[in-house]
Every structure is written in structure tokens, then in C-alpha cells.
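User: I'm preparing a small set of examples for a lab meeting where we compare how different chains pack in three dimensions. I only have the primary sequence for this one, and I'd like the structure in C-alpha cell form so I can line it up with the others. Please keep the answer compact; I'll paste it straight into my notes.
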Amino acid sequence: MKRPEQPSQKSLAELSILEYMSANPDAKDTAVRVMKWWIGTTGRPLPRLEIQRTLDHLVHQGWMIVREGRVHEKIYSLKQDRRLELRQILLQQPMTD
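Assistant: Understood. Below is the C-alpha cell output for the 97-residue chain.
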């Protein structure tokens, strides 16, 4: 099995989502709700398409899992076996404003 990639220099959307998942590791949401509740509260508004692409990228990298919810909406959540690794990586990231 391929080992998930380490995040490199992250986009604002990627860093915002990773920070939220680290602080709320049991969170599960759709792209729209990620935009509203995970990122919308940070004061860093981002376009929905960018958030959707970032979520799909994080799934591809092995940081998140996705499942089909009601009405065929994708539900995103942290891959639980990566919690500790995520915290360690975020500690190494420069602070964001």
C-alpha cells in the first residue's frame, strides 16, 4: 500500500482545513459545510471550488476519507490513523494570519 504523502507548502485552503481537523479530529462534513463552518469562522473566506479541490486533494494524499452521504453528498473527515502525524506536521508549519 502506498504511504500517504506529507503535505508540503500548503495553500491557504489546505492549511485551514488541516488546522481545523487537528483541533476537531472527529469532525465530518460536506464541502459546503466545510466552507461555512470550518473555514468561514477563520476570517479567511475561500471559493467553494477551491475548497472542493483541496478536500479531494487531501483525500488523494491520504489525510482524509470521503463517504457518500444522503442525497449523494460527499462527507469528508480526517483519517484517524493520521491524527498524531498531522499535529506534528502542523507544529512545524509557519504561523498563519
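A couple of notes for your slides: Residues 48-61 form the longest helix (14 residues). The CA atoms of residues 42 and 59 lie 22 Å apart.

User: Perfect, thanks.
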